[in-house]
Write a structure and sequence with these properties.
Shape: elongated
Helix content: 40-55%
Radius of gyration: 21 Å
Low-confidence stretches: none
Mean pLDDT: 83
Distance between the termini: 60 Å
Structural class: mainly alpha
Number of strands: 2
Strand order of the largest sheet: 1-2
Order of helices and strands: HEEH
């Protein structure tokens, strides 16, 4: 079993740490460098949270409209 401290945060492929491969071939083995970019990951996480908040507000608005119709 691999030590999580040694490979934590790595992209694995075929039971091994995948090599970086930024070739334009979408079927190439390996991981693109942008997939390991921590800043991009943080920005994506923040954007995902924004979308979830917006979606929950939209769902709440639909529920409120439904409650008003049923009343």
């Amino acid at each position: 079993m691999a030590d999580k401290e040694a490979i934590g945060g790595s992209y694995l492929e075929d039971c091994a740490v995948a090599p970086l491969d930024d070739t334009p071939n979408p079927f190439a083995d390996g991981v693109k460098s942008y997939a390991l970019d921590a800043d991009r990951a943080r920005r994506l996480w923040a954007k995902s949270e924004e979308w979830l908040v917006a979606a929950s507000r939209a769902d709440g608005a639909r529920v409120n409209r439904t409650e008003a119709i049923d009343a």
